[in-house]
Structures are given as structure tokens and as C-alpha cells.
Amino acid sequence: MKKKNEESDQFGLVSVYLVLLFLIAIAIFLFSSSSNSTTSHQSFLRCLLDDHHIPPSMITTRDSNSFSSLLNFSIQNPRIYGNTYPTLIVSPTSESHVQHAITCAKKHRIHMRVRSGGHDYEGLSYTSTLGPFILLDLFNLRSISIDVTSNTAWVQSGATLGELYHAISEKAGPNVAFPAGVCPTVGIGGHLSGGGLGTLVRAFGLAADQVVDARLVNANGEIQNRKSMGEGLFWAIRGGGCCFGIILSFKVTLVQVPPNVTVFSASRTLNQGATKLVTKWQNVAHELDRRLFIRVVLVPDEDEEGSKTVKATFNSLFLGSKAELLPLMGVSFPELGLREEDCTEMSWIKSVLYFSGYLSGGKNESALTERGVVDPFFAPFKAKSDFVKEPVSEQGWDNIWKWFSEENEFLIVILDPFGGRMDEISESETPFPHRNGSLYNLQYMVKWDVAEGSELTGKHLNWTKRFYEFMAPYVSKNPRAAYYNYRDLDLGRNEEGANSYLTANVWGRRYFKDNFRRLAEVKSEVDPDNFFRNEQSVPPLFHSGK
Ligand SMILES: Cc1cc2nc3c(=O)[nH]c(=O)nc-3n(C[C@H](O)[C@H](O)[C@H](O)COP(=O)(O)OP(=O)(O)OC[C@H]3O[C@@H](n4cnc5c(N)ncnc54)[C@H](O)[C@@H]3O)c2cc1C
Ligand SMILES: *[C@@H]1O[C@H](CO)[C@@H](O)[C@H](O)[C@H]1NC(C)=O
Ligand SMILES: *[C@@H]1O[C@H](CO)[C@@H](O)[C@H](O)[C@H]1NC(C)=O
Ligand SMILES: *[C@@H]1O[C@H](CO)[C@@H](O)[C@H](O)[C@H]1NC(C)=O
Ligand SMILES: *[C@@H]1O[C@H](CO)[C@@H](O)[C@H](O)[C@H]1NC(C)=O
Ligand SMILES: *[C@@H]1O[C@H](CO)[C@@H](O)[C@H](O)[C@H]1NC(C)=O
After folding, report:
1. DSSP assignment of 60-79, as one string?
2. Best CA proximity match to 516, nearest among 524, 532, 505, 526
3. Atom of ligand 1 minimally distant from the CA of 138
4. Which ligand 2 atom is nearest residue 72's CA?
5. How far is CA 206 from the centre of its chain?
6. pTM beyond 0.85, yes or no
7. Nearest to 544 by CA among 530, 533, 534, 532
């Protein structure tokens, strides 16, 4: 008995030793891996400060008091809070600072994210699941210079759409505009490199379609313009998204608009015939005079009796007067019953305030230069997108409406019509392929109350996925296309290694169709080591093997 006990004691002791050894090994492993990344991040810091003389004020480390407000400053989706954070933030004030940051990051093998306006739907500009990283925040690189004689502008990446719109209105007057997104706080860097669509899309195409030159820092830390980067890379950065280099600025062509445009918003609930109107809209919106843009915004609502319904708002910009618009509507879309009193004439810049909700929020043009989080509907969200090639039937819409009345889910669906200029540009002219034959873009956005806390986030994400699956029969197929600027990580993520192109092809074809392969070819040429990367960046077609 005693012997047995001793034996088992000894056995117990041995296992205690083994457990201890195991714990020590883990501790050493953890310590060394964390200190590895800490030392390389420290070497990176010394490289910037000592070797390249970057002013210390441009670097914000995690222990600084201003770290969290600087990081939060342009986070537009509070769902992303609490994901991994950068070890430090570099805020360059000149082009050469960007070069130095890349040179040092490459030398010390530091992963880097770049942020312009911070509107990435999945937060890829300031969070990473690919290990420790630093954030290069371009918000100080936001100068805008407008040349009224050539009707062009050089805009730095860190400027916002609102700053550009404001500068155009101040310097070029009421006849000049720029076709891009409706939300003024969106950054130029992410928006133009991913496409960019708004109320002028039918008249002039995407924001990326207006780009005539650009300056970027490539993976070797060199500054290039259109001429020195070559047409392949210049093609890729006009819609091909992240990670071909860090774009410093774009040169864009501005467009001509009349001194007054006309806007209207006409809302109809299901009882007021919304189903028939939306069904009809699909057949006319893409074929209208290209000066006329009518989008539809669908939200859940309650009618007078307090029962659930859907509200469809026909939200329009017309590049002309009321007097021209009314007969056009009378011929093409009389069912809407648009009246003169529904329409308002205003300058184009006012229409920017109108579409962004700034006008109804009592804001004037000076608000366009406000940065950071100014969205009155700021709340956690998940979004997805589709393109529609065949009109959905009335029966189809009736089925879709059921999703709008689900408890605790706030769904916004936006239908942006194409046609016009979009039909004239071939699928391969830029990386954005959803042109000819797409009637409209569909965006689904599910929002919830920030006060719910993060526990319920999974429930909303699941609901959004189910709704998206339900929509499959109504939208484009093979591939089921999506808009890159409405980034959706459910479509797929990159994997490291030799098969990364094939893995990426799954999500890549959905954003870029056949252009995806050409994007990967360009990437092989300009960044074969995949230095610039994220969870959904175009990988090199031929992996360098590093
Ligand atoms: C409230 C809201 C409204 C929106 N409205 C519209 C709309 O009307 N129309 C539309 O088309 N889209 C719209 N979007 C989507 C928007 O176009 C994209 O999210 C766009 O990528 C945002 O650009 P950013 O610079 O603000 O984002 P960021 O989050 O800073 O960047 C987005 C991506 O681009 C990369 N990137 C940023 N800057 C650079 C650079 N200088 N060089 C290289 N890569 C860079 C980032 O690393 C990241 O991968 C909206 C988004 C939000 C949140
Ligand atoms: C930044 O956002 C996080 C997450 O909501 C919050 O905990 C933190 O207090 C914010 N920091 C500042 C300075 O606003
Ligand atoms: C533009 O519309 C406003 C408001 O209706 C009007 O006062 C102004 O005269 C119009 N300007 C032009 C050039 O038509
Ligand atoms: C615009 O709004 C700001 C802030 O609300 C105000 O200070 C300014 O005077 C306004 N400008 C004009 C031209 O109305
Ligand atoms: C658009 O599609 C039509 C019909 O398929 C075709 O005739 C036309 O050439 C296409 N235009 C472009 C620019 O691809
Ligand atoms: C979401 O769906 C997944 C897979 O169907 C399931 O495992 C998970 O529990 C769901 N999460 C929530 C919060 O409902």
C-alpha cells in the first residue's frame, strides 16, 4: 500500500515537473514572440526617428493619452471597435514621410495599414487579423488644388469628399461638380481607389472614371506618377482597391452642371402602391435621360393604423430645371405622380447637403469640411451588396417585404440606378466591371443600437447572411457580383501561401469579374512580396515564395 503510495507520489511529482516545464516553455514562447514583435516595432520606431528624422510629434504610441482619440477619430462603424489595434499610429504631413514609413516598415518587416477617411465597412484600414501592425493615417495629407482653366483638381488621399465638394464650390463656382459618393466624410483615398458612386453616376460614371493622373509610393518607397508607374498600375488603382501602393493624390477631371439642379424625394408606403412603383422603377430608371438620377431607399415603417409597412422613397437629382423635369417624368414615370411642389431647384452644392441629410439637419456648406464621425445615424452596421440584371417581379417584392417587418432588425435597402454613362464604358476599361447590363446596384444595410452591446452582434450578422441568401434568386449570378467599396468579408478572405491567388479568386471574381486576374498580374509586377496586404487585397498571381 505504502509503496504504491510512494510510487503514485513520485508519479505526481513528475507530472508536476512536466506541467511546470510545459508552462515555462509556453511563457518563454509567448515572451519571445511578443518581444520579437516589440523589438521589431521598436527598431521601426528608431528607423523613423533616428535614421529618417521623422518628427516625434508625428508618431503616437499606445501609451500616449491621445492614442485612442486619434484611432477613434474616423472609425465609422462602431461594430469594429474592440478588434485588434495598431501598435502605433504614424500621421505623415508630407509625401516624404510616407516614403520613410514604407522604407522602415519594409526593412523591419512591419505589417502596415493605411487609412484615408476610415469608412471601410469592415475596418480593414485600421484593424488587422494578420498580426501586429502599424497604422499610417493620411488625414493630414488633404490639400486640394483646383485648376479652373483645365477644369481639373489634384486631391490628396486624406481629403474627404465633402472637402473636395466644398473646394470646388468655393473656387470653381456653381457650374462645376465632381461625381462621387453622397456621404461627405468618405475619404478620397479609399473611395476613388475602390470606384465611387453617387448621384451623378448616370451622367458621368464613377469617381474613379474621372481620374487622369495619380501620385503613389510603391513597395520600394519610390514616388511614381501616371507616366512612371505605367498604364497597368494606373489601371489597377482606378477601382482595383487596396494594396498596389499608397496613393498620395489623384488628379481628377471636374464636370459641368447647370447653375441650378432639381431635387425631389417622394415617399410611398405599401398601401400607397410602393410595390407597383418599385417594380416599374426597375424598368425605367436605367433608361431615363442621363441627367436624371432616381434612387430608391427602402425602410421599414408604420402606416396610420400602426401596422407594419415598407416605405419606398424615390430620391432624385436632375441636372436641369423643374420645368424640364416634370414633362420628362410625365412621359417616363407618370405612375409616381410627381408634382411641381415636390421639386426644389438649388445649386449642385446644396444638393450635396440635401442627399447627405445635412440640409434637413440644419447644416450649411461649411459643414462639408467637418471630419471624423458626423453621421447622425452613427450605429454598428453590417452591409452587403448585389447587382440586379433582371427586374424583380411584384410577387418577388412582396416576398422581400416580409424581411422588413422582423422584430429588432433595422434594414435599409438602397437601389442605385445605372445606365447612361455607365453603359458606355466597357467592363475592362477599369477594374470596376459592373457596367453594361446592370440595371441597378442593391445595398443592404442592417443597423442596430450601440446600447445592445456586442453580445447581440452575432445575431444581427447571422440575420443579414440569411437575408442575403434569400435574395440570391433575384440578383446577378456566376459570379454573384458585389461592389468592392461595400466591402463584405463574408465573401472570403485571403490565405497566406502558394494557393493564395486561387483562394482569393472566390471573392475577387465577385468584385472584379475577369478583371481580377489582370489585377493579380499587376500586383505580381509591382509588389511580388505582397508587402501591402489585408484580409481582402489582390494577391500576386505568382507568389514570390517569401
Ligand atoms: C457612411 C458611409 C457612406 C458611404 N457612402 C458611399 C457612397 O455614397 N458611394 C460609394 O461608392 N461608397 C460609399 N461608401 C463606401 C466608401 O466608398 C468606402 O468605404 C471607401 O473605401 C472609403 O474610403 P475611405 O478613405 O474613407 O476609407 P478607409 O477606411 O480609409 O480605406 C478603405 C480601404 O482603402 C485603403 N486605402 C485608404 N487610403 C488609401 C491610400 N491612400 N492608398 C491605398 N489604399 C488606401 C484602406 O487601407 C482600406 O483598405 C460609404 C461608406 C460609409 C461608411
Ligand atoms: C474609443 O472607442 C472605444 C470603444 O468605444 C472607447 O472605449 C474609448 O473610450 C474611445 N476613446 C476615446 C478617447 O473616445
Ligand atoms: C436657382 O434657384 C433659386 C431657388 O429657386 C433661384 O432663386 C435662383 O434664381 C435660381 N438661379 C438660376 C441661375 O436659375
Ligand atoms: C454655417 O453654419 C455655421 C455653424 O452652424 C455658422 O457658424 C455659419 O455662420 C453658417 N454660415 C452661413 C453662410 O450661413
Ligand atoms: C453594351 O451591351 C450592348 C448589348 O449587349 C452591346 O451592344 C454594347 O456594345 C455594349 N457596350 C459596351 C461599351 O460594352
Ligand atoms: C450564427 O450562425 C452560426 C452558424 O449558423 C451559429 O453557429 C451561431 O451560433 C449563430 N450565432 C448567433 C449569435 O446566433
Report:
1. EETTSTTHHHHHHTT---GG
2. 505
3. 41
4. 1
5. 14
6. yes
7. 530
Q: Report the alpha-carbon distance of residue 121 to residue 489 in Å, rounded.
A: 9
Nearest to 198 by CA among 512, 441, 487, 484: 441
Cα gap 287→179, rounded to integer Å: 19
Ligand 4 atom showing the smallest separation from residue 366 Cα: 1
The CATH architecture of the domain made up of 144-256 is 2-Layer Sandwich (3.30)
Domain ranges for the chain, please list them. 1-140, 144-256, 261-346+379-474, 492-546
**Class of CATH domain 261-346+379-474:** alpha beta
For ligand 1, say whether the CB of 534 is within 6 Å of any of its atoms: yes
- Closest Cα to atom 34 of ligand 1: 190
- The CB of 236 under 6 Å from ligand 1? The reply is no
**Which ligand has the nearest atom to the CA of 456?**
6
217-230 per-position pLDDT tens digit: 999 999 999 999 99
Q: What is the CATH number of domain 1-140?
A: 3.30.43.10
Q: Answer yes or no: is the C-beta of 364 below 6 A from any ligand 4 atom.
A: yes
Percent of the chain past pLDDT 90, that is, above it, reads 84
Q: Is the pLDDT of residue 34 over 60?
A: no
In the structure grid, which three cell numbers stand for residue 291, read together? 441627367
**Residue (of 438, 435, 439) closest to 425 by Cα position:** 435
Q: CA 174, CA 256: separation in Å to the nearest integer?
A: 9
Supply the residue whose CA is at minimum distance from atom 14 of ligand 3: 260
Establish how many alpha carbons lie within 13 A of residue 428's alpha carbon, considering only the half-sphere containing its beta carbon.
7
At residue 296's C-alpha, the angle toward residues 425 and 195, to 5°, is 35
What's 271's DSSP letter?
G
> Does pLDDT of 8 surpass 70?
no
Q: For ligand 6, atom 2, which residue shows the shortest CA distance?
A: 462
pLDDT band at 544 (very low <50, low <70, confident <90, very high): low
Could you report the per-residue pLDDT of 458-512, keeping only the tens digit for each? 999 999 999 999 999 999 999 999 999 999 999 999 987 778 999 999 999 999 9
- How far is ligand 2, taken at its centre, from the CA of residue 72, in Å? 6
- Ligand 6: which residue has its CA nearest to atom 4? 462
Question: What residues line ligand 3, using a CB cutoff of 6 Å?
Answer: 259-260, 345
Residue 409: name the closest of 375, 444, 374 by CA: 444
Q: Do domains 144-256 and 261-346+379-474 have the same CATH topology?
A: no
Task: Note the pLDDT tens digit of each residue in 198-251.
Answer: 999 999 999 999 999 999 999 999 999 999 999 999 999 999 999 999 999 999
